[in-house]
Structure formats: structure tokens, C-alpha cells
Design brief:
CATH superfamily of the largest domain: Aldolase class I
Order of helices and strands: EEEHEEHEEEHEHHHEHEHHEHEHHHHH
Largest sheet: 8 strands, parallel, barrel
Strand content: 5-15%
Bound molecules: flavin mononucleotide
Oligomer: single chain
Shape: globular
CATH class of the largest domain: Alpha Beta
């Protein structure tokens, strides 16, 4: 059998076919309109990416509750919000047979102070220092509230399908609500939602099953999951393997592997060993282990920068889809170039403002790459030469303005 390469198609368990093995991993656009709706900027951005030749586009996280936002300008899908632009966004991302899936999320305690006075979480445990300065201590969810959030995920998935999106993804990674339920350090409940791993994974299983019931067997449902939280006493690789086994048995169409949380941002390559850097992908070793356990298609995200690195991961059989994020914010045509066999590499480089204090205080990667998405949303080209300091200053200016005006 010929080894798999980025140009191959992939048939998912639900029967849907991806036209190649390159997937855009979620990047929050933070450019929704007042009223939590999407707009023409999303259509331009996703049309640009679809023209770039990619097989699968996963949107930035879309929230399921307007009172639980991760960022000020998130799009929200919930009852009572009519977003007339959703079908246009979906159509833009479907150009040339590209798949476009919506990433659905609830931030739990990772909703900043200026957006949530009292965020909710499995248990009333604050984020660690120094993040406790930016995020309020959460309140523990009640049983009824947990059931309501599960129903919200299912409702949002149905709206996505009806709007023409071709799949959905549950955000189960990076320390948001699903990941908080999975983590023994964040979830210290003593009821059926906490304690044993079986109880901690009840929430994500119920979210998946509720979504599946709404969208049917032939609609792709995916999850982004952490290999681990990289926190003492947190969600371990052993836990993660068991969750993957069970979600795979339930029929998950694509399991995307990432890792880390706001407290330990491993998803962005923080503190990777040199041996990992040589293999490009941050979570490749873990993905190789998972491959031995499950048949479900696996997408591996974080660190891929060249066709060589991508094809090596596919050829080894470790994963089935290559997830890319930051490169696509500055090189929207990267997939076409990779697929054509040209020796292109990613232009992603470490960012610095030149001021240690600013580099430590601000999530530079998020701020600078979000700026690049906004350029494309406005119909412009990305500006890879823009300075990180410039992005920080414009963000501080916008935040200041919003503090005066109130965000929405
Ligand atoms: C601006 C920005 C926004 C992001 N937003 C999300 C998000 O909404 N959901 C998510 O799962 N990951 C998000 N990520 C993480 C990426 O999906 C990805 O896991 C990470 O950037 C590593 O991949 P890369 O090395 O190809 O950039 C975001 C990353 C960036 C740079």
C-alpha cells in the first residue's frame, strides 16, 4: 500500500470525504458584530482560506452562551440570536469542496474579568497566580445548569447544520469548560460529574451524544482534546488515552490532538524539548501512542511547518490529518503551495515586542495573529512585517476604548 501523503483524500466514519489531509485548526477571530453575530468579514476570511486549497476549515471557537464568552467579540449561537450571515459564512468556506466545521465552546472559568463577574465551572476553584488577576473565581455549576449547557451545545450544532456548515467540533482542549470537567485539579465535584475519570468524562460524552442526536449519523462530529494539561495533579496522558478510547467507540469522526491550558500553554509550543522541535509537531509522540489504541481518524495540531514534517507524520501512520493554525494567518495559500510539491515552509517565527515585561504580560501570539485575521477579514493581505509591539498597542487602545464604551 502506498504511504499516505497530504494530497490524499480521507473518508470519515460518517461517510464524509475530506479532499486532502490538511486541516485548519481553530483560531478565534474575535471579530463578531454587536449582538454576537458573524458578518461579512468572516465570509471574506473563510473564502480566502478555501481558495488556498485546504481540505478542512475549523472555525474559531463559537460560544454557546452569550453570558459565557472567552473574548469580547465571540460569535454566539443560542436560542434568541438570529444570525442571518451564518449561511453566507458556511458557503464561503465550502468553496471548491472544502469542509467547514464550527468549533463549539463554553469557556467555563476562562472568561476574563471584564466579561464575567462570576464565571461558572465544575468547581469553585480559581485559576492559578498570576491568572487569578485576570479571571474571577468561578461558581460551581448546579446539576440543572450542566444539563442546560449540554442542550446548548446540541442546539448550536443543529443551527450549524441547518446553516450549511458541513460539521462541528467540540472544543475539549486548552482548559475551557469541557477540559475543566476532565481535569481532577479543576473538577473536585463529589456528584456524578466529578471524582473518577468515568464521572469526569460524563460531561463530554453527554455533549457528544446530544449533538449526535441532533445532527444524525452522517454529519461529521469532531473533538479537540488535550494530550495532557501539563499541570501537576491535572488531566494526564493516561486519562486522555482512556477518554479517546471511549469517544472513539461512540463514533467520533475526527479526534484532534493538542495540549495545554492558559496556565501552561503547551499548544503554542511553550517549553518544547529540542527533540520535539526537530520532529516539528509538539504532540507527535503522544499521537503515535493513541494511534495504536483507536481506529478513529486523528488530526494532530501544533508545530507543523513543512511538507516534509507533515508527510513524515502521515507516512508513519501517527495521524490522518495535519492541523495548522498560525501559518495560515500569514500564508493563506500555504496549503496550495504544499500540495503542489513546492519547497515552501511556514513563516511562523517567535514574536517579541522587545520589552520583556510586555512579552510576559500579554498573550503576544494570540494578539498578533488575531490582527492578521482581521486584515484578511477586511479584504487586505496579511502583514507579516507588522511589529508585535504595534499589535499590543492597538489592542490596548481598543480595550481602553471598550472600557469606556462597554464592550457590547
Ligand atoms: C490567534 C489564535 C487563536 C486561537 N484560537 C483557538 C480557538 O478558538 N480554538 C482552539 O482550539 N485553538 C485555538 N488556537 C490554537 C490553535 O488552534 C493551535 O492549536 C495552535 O496555534 C498550534 O498550532 P500551530 O503551531 O499550527 O499554530 C488559537 C491560536 C491562535 C494563534
Amino acid at each position: 500500500m502506498k504511504p499516505t501523503s497530504i494530497t490524499d483524500t480521507l473518508t470519515l466514519p460518517c461517510g464524509a470525504v475530506l479532499k486532502n489531509r490538511i486541516g485548519k485548526s481553530a483560531m478565534s477571530e474575535n471579530m463578531g458584530s454587536r449582538g454576537y453575530t458573524s458578518n461579512e468579514k468572516f465570509n471574506r476570511l473563510y473564502a480566502r482560506w478555501a481558495e488556498g486549497g485546504i481540505g478542512l476549515l475549523i472555525t474559531g471557537n463559537v460560544m454557546v452562551d452569550r453570558f459565557a464568552l472567552g473574548e469580547a467579540h465571540n460569535v454566539v449561537i443560542e436560542q434568541g440570536i438570529q444570525d442571518a450571515n451564518l449561511p453566507h459564512w458556511a458557503a464561503a468556506g465550502k468553496k471548491d469542496g472544502t469542509h467547514i466545521w464550527v468549533q463549539l465552546n463554553h469557556p467555563g472559568k476562562q472568561s476574563p474579568k471584564f466579561l464575567s463577574k462570576e464565571p461558572v465551572a465544575p468547581s469553585a476553584i480559581p485559576l492559578k497566580k498570576p491568572l487569578d488577576r485576570l479571571f474571577n473565581t468561578p461558581r460551581a455549576l448546579t446539576e440543572d445548569e450542566i444539563l442546560e449547557i449540554i442542550a446548548r451545545f446540541a442546539y448550536a450544532a443543529r443551527v450549524c447544520k441547518e446553516s450549511g456548515f458541513t460539521g462541528v467540533q467540540i472544543h475539549g482542549a486548552h482548559g475551557y469548560l469541557v477540559s475543566q470537567f476532565l481535569s481532577p485539579s479543576h473538577n473536585q465535584r463529589t456528584d456524578r460529574w466529578g471524582g473518577t475519570l468515568e464521572n469526569r468524562m460524563r460531561f463530554v460524552k453527554k455533549v457528544y451524544l446530544a449533538i449526535r442526536k441532533e445532527v444524525g449519523a452522517s454529519f461529521p462530529v469532531s473533538i479537540k482534546l488535550n494530550s495532557a494539561d501539563f499541570q501537576k495533579g491535572g488531566f494526564t496522558q493516561e486519562d486522555s488515552r482512556e477518554v479517546i478510547k471511549q469517544l472513539s467507540a461512540l463514533g467520533m469522526d475526527l479526534i484532534e490532538i493538542s495540549g495545554g491550558t492558559y496556565e501552561a500553554p503547551a499548544m503554542m509550543g511553550a517549553a518544547q524539548k529540542e527533540s520535539t522541535q526537530q520532529r516539528e509537531a509538539y504532540f507527535l509522540t503522544y499521537c503515535e501512542e493513541v494511534r495504536k489504541l483507536v481506529q478513529s481518524p486523528l488530526m494532530l495540531t501544533g508545530g507543523f511547518r513543512s511538507a516534509q514534517g507533515m508527510n513524515a507524520a502521515l507516512e508513519s501512520g501517527a495521524c490522518d490529518v495535519i492541523g495548522i493554525a498560525r501559518s495560515l494567518a500569514i500564508q493563506p495559500d500555504f496549503p496550495n503551495q504544499l500540495l503542489s510539491g513546492s519547497a515552501v515552509t511556514s513563516q511562523v517565527k517567535p514574536l517579541t515586542t522587545g520589552w520583556k515585561f510586555l512579552d510576559k504580560t500579554f498573550p503576544l501570539e494570540i494578539i498578533w495573529y488575531t490582527d492578521q485575521l482581521h486584515f484578511m477579514g477586511e479584504g487586505k493581505n496579511p502583514k507579516p512585517k507588522k511589529s508585535a509591539l504595534g499589535s499590543v498597542l492597538s489592542m490596548v487602545y481598543k480595550l481602553g476604548k471598550n472600557a469606556v464604551k462597554k464592550v457590547r
